[in-house]
Amino acid sequence: MKTILLKAATLSLLAISSCLPAQVDLTIGINYSYNPPTGCNNKITALSVDICNGGSSSANSFIVGIYLFNPGTSEKWVIDQTTVNSLSGNACITINNWDINMNNYCCLPAPASNYRIGVWADTANVITETSKSNNASLLSGNIQVCASSVGLTNRAGVLETISIAPNPTIDKSELKFVLVTEERVSVTVSDITGRAILNVYEGMLAGGEHIISLNTDNVSSGIYFINIHVAGGEIKKKLIIQK
Questions:
Q1: From CA 153, how far away is CA 86, in angstroms rounded?
Q2: pLDDT tens for each residue of 20-56
Q3: How many CA within 13 A on the CB side of residue 71?
Q4: Other Cβ atoms closer than 10 A to 40
Q5: Is 175 helix (H, G, I), strand (E, B) or coil?
Q6: I need a labelling partner for 213 at 20 to 30 A (CA). Which of 9, 50, 126, 224 fits?
Q7: Rg (CA), the chain
Q8: 9 located within any domain
């Protein structure tokens, strides 16, 4: 009788183990390098960083974000993102020569010289992991952030109140922006090579807040740009599509 019970218990354990979720644990590697902004240009260049999976199972596509961190207030601002298509268990991948122009970010924080750069694996929180506590890490060294010289404030008649939500998205987002005065507006979506893939809107819009729906159901996963064209200029906003 004891032998039969032991076999039954063993079978039960096998059944439970086969139902366990994938063992994935994303972490930030110890190897990294970057060139901090110089001359108040708000540009981080040649950033290289290791992203590792300490688990035994492979991770599917996920997004890695770079963020600014204010040690005094613990505030964070994600300033750029990229996609890792997959990462095997017990392996690392190096993202090389990542250039980030913070002037393209719509809402730079207050100018200061004590900001830190952080790396965050799986910013969209789509990967099931054994632990999420080690997904983000700060890189050593302080950087200076200056007032944006080519930011979105009042540029080409459009205010800085521009947002896309959700972002990252699967198939639908909303673009919100404010016009100072009546403008002829054209909204398109382009890939990272600049090729237009969607014509979203074109026509006259009155001054004030506007909301435009973006249907990306037929667009593959990747990094894209929403282009808002008005008289005298163009404004770009990054859009992440992750399916």
A1: 37
A2: 555 999 999 999 999 999 988 999 999 999 999 999 9
A3: 13
A4: 12
A5: strand
A6: 126
A7: 22
A8: no
